[in-house]
Amino acid sequence: MYSNVAESFNSWIKDERYLPIRNLVDAIRVKIMDMIVERSKKASEWDGKFCPKVDQKLYDSFQESRTWVVLHSGNGVFEVQSEPTVSVDLVARNCSCQKWQQDGFPCCHAVGVIASAGKDLSYYVDPYYYAETYRASYSYPIHPIPTLWMPRNPTNEDVILPPLSKKPPGRPKSRRIPSRGEKVSQIRCGRCHKLGNHNRSTCKEAM
According to the lineage, what is the superkingdom (predicted)? Predict the structure, then answer.
């Protein structure tokens, strides 16, 4: 169970989330409208079959697998002598490292097997990573909502107030928690001299 989507969205609306609910909803609408236009324009300039980041990831996986030995076991099953040695099944589209099954994207072991077997790499990549799928995701625009005829104030006196809430103690967290496998830049603490994501003021190591 991950809350990455909620944390990323909360960070995306960091400046707007303190607005009143009506203004917040309209601000989110405007941000989504701008995002769709921006990403649709960017995707229209792509020439390849995959998104640029996917192309780069496939290239990096190919470079990493160049020194590995690939042995054919039969029936589409291969042994990749890497560190550690893994088994890749091209028919079932799985690898014993579990990354292919988890992401729907060939891991570095599978990329090495596909390249060694001389097969089409695009056949083994899930359509989710295609540039065409990316364009289709942002092909539906958000239409503007004119405020010309909207009343400035409520027409009746029955106004629903927000519920009473008590602010919890301590400073609220504003940074998202990185997910498993995510590359996070590390710094060296000036107090314990260890690499991590803390500094001298937040160091909790025993000295």
Answer: Eukaryota
Beta pairing class for 187-188 and 195-196: antiparallel
pLDDT at residue 43 greater than cutoff 90: yes
Reading the block at residue 107, the tokens are 């891991």
Angle between helices 108-117 and 52-65 (to 10 degrees): 80
pLDDT in tens, 130-180: 999 999 999 999 988 887 676 666 666 677 777 888 888 888 776 666 666
Give the model's pLDDT for residue 45.
93
Q: Identity (one letter) of the amino acid at 144?
A: P
Among 197, 159, 194, CA closest to 177: 197
27-33: Cβ within 8 A, 24+ apart? 29/142, 29/145, 32/142, 33/141, 33/142, 33/144
Task: Give the closest residue to 64 by CA, choosing from 86, 93, 89.
Answer: 86
First to last CA, the chain: 35
**Phi/psi class of residue 104: alpha, beta or left (left: φ > 0; alpha: ψ in -120 to 50)?**
left
